[in-house]
Design goal:
By secondary structure, the protein is an alpha+beta fold. It has a domain at about 35-125: 2-Layer Sandwich (Gyrase A, domain 2). The chain has 2 helices and 6 strands. Strands 2-3-5-4 form a 4-stranded antiparallel beta sheet, covered by helices on one side. Strands 1-6 form a two-stranded parallel ribbon. The longest helix is centred in the first third of the chain and has 13 residues, at about 1-15.
């Protein structure tokens, strides 16, 4: 975040717009004390080569299984991860609002509370470096504050 904000502010400065621009930073994820929580890499349970692309980390992550790998086999391997629920896309429970979205990838990992799912930067090419609209299962179109 610091890197991208720094680049943005530098670009405003170079364009002569820094003094005329108000920058407001908001977040949709509250902070939480992580004492007692454990963070584990997804690649502790599956090969990094089996992940084509992935989105998010922390309380949940979803990813596409790479060609040549079986979704069922990847899910079976991930199912040994204590403290994390693992779902194939078609088995995602109705309680998740994005269940039927075309934007949700093959496998969903959801923390049960103590265990956090994390990326493995050795395979960073598979992990999305920036949020991609719709990758979280929501619609791609921007929401209006006027409705």
């Amino acid at each position: 975040m610091d890197f991208w904000l720094g680049n943005f502010l530098s670009a405003l400065e170079e364009a002569g717009l820094r003094e005329e621009t108000n920058v407001v930073i908001v977040a949709d994820h509250g902070t939480k004390d992580t004492e007692g929580q454990v963070t584990s890499k997804v690649t502790n349970f599956v090969s990094g080569e089996s992940i084509e692309k992935a989105c998010d980390s922390g309380s949940y992550m979803h990813f596409a299984v790479a060609d040549g790998f079986s979704v069922d086999e990847v899910v079976a391997n991930l199912s040994s991860w204590e403290g994390v629920d693992v779902y194939k896309k078609e088995d995602i429970p109705d309680r998740f609002a994005f269940r039927d979205s075309d934007l949700v990838l093959d496998v969903l990992l959801v923390s049960q509370g103590e265990e956090l799912v994390n990326q493995d930067w050795a395979y960073r090419q598979a992990f999305m470096p920036l949020p991609v609209p719709g990758m979280d299962g929501r619609e791609k179109k921007p929401l209006s504050i006027h409705t």
